[in-house]
TrEMBL record:
SUPFAM superfamilies: Homeodomain-like. Signal peptide: none annotated. InterPro entries: Homeodomain-like_sf, HTH-type_TetR-like_transc_reg, HTH_TetR, TetR_C_18. Keywords: DNA-binding. The lineage of its organism: Bacteria, Pseudomonadati, Pseudomonadota, Gammaproteobacteria, Enterobacterales. Residues 1-34 form the HTH tetR-type domain. PROSITE patterns: HTH_TETR_2 (PS50977). The keyword Phosphoprotein does not apply. This is Bacterial regulatory proteins, tetR family. One of its GO terms (molecular function) is transcription cis-regulatory region binding. It comes from the Bacteria.
Length: 166
């Protein structure tokens, strides 16, 4: 890895004393990038909530497929950092972003229902994205899967709102 990064092994170990430290840093960076993407897409009020949700699903599924090999290594070290303060902070930030979006997407729906909808969408997106990305996929397969999932989420939100999708 040091050679690929263009640094000496000694330099690498100066900042990362062991494999777990390297993996933790990679995982922290991945969490941050995903949370930034979530925030950027869901906060773009120039697009409708349904359009933003569709963009998020497409970007997330593509990202999961691109990062599938790295995720195997990161998952091996997951027990070492799953409960770290950094992990908790990123989860909380993501949850806040989703809840703000849900308030906008479901303005006339009770908060408890919005929270449940957000949890279902995030949980389903994460689990299905992980499972789907475990097999190498072509761009058309990724697009078709993401579109179908986005259709499902948009139909769910439209149903909660009591009207058809725009």
């Amino acid at each position: 890895m040091a050679e690929r990064a263009g640094v000496s092994v000694g330099s690498l170990y100066q900042y990362f004393p062991n494999k777990a430290a390297i993996l933790f840093r990679l995982q922290s960076d991945e969490w941050r990038q995903t949370t930034d993407m979530l925030g950027r897409i869901l906060a773009d009020r120039e697009k409708t909530p349904f359009a933003r949700l569709r963009l998020l699903v497409q970007a997330f599924i593509r990202s999961e497929c691109e990062e599938a090999q790295m995720r195997v290594a990161l998952n091996d070290a997951a027990p070492l950092y799953r409960d770290a303060p950094e992990a908790q902070a990123v989860k909380a930030a993501g949850k806040d972003i989703v809840q703000v979006f849900m308030c906008e997407a479901l303005p006339d729906v009770p908060q408890v229902t919005r929270r449940l909808a957000g949890d279902l969408i995030v949980g389903t997106l994460g689990a299905a994205g992980k499972q789907f990305s475990e097999t190498p996929r072509t761009d058309p397969e990724i697009a078709a899967y993401a579109d179908a999932m986005a259709d499902m989420f948009c139909a769910y939100l439209a149903d909660l709102n009591g009207h058809q999708r725009p």
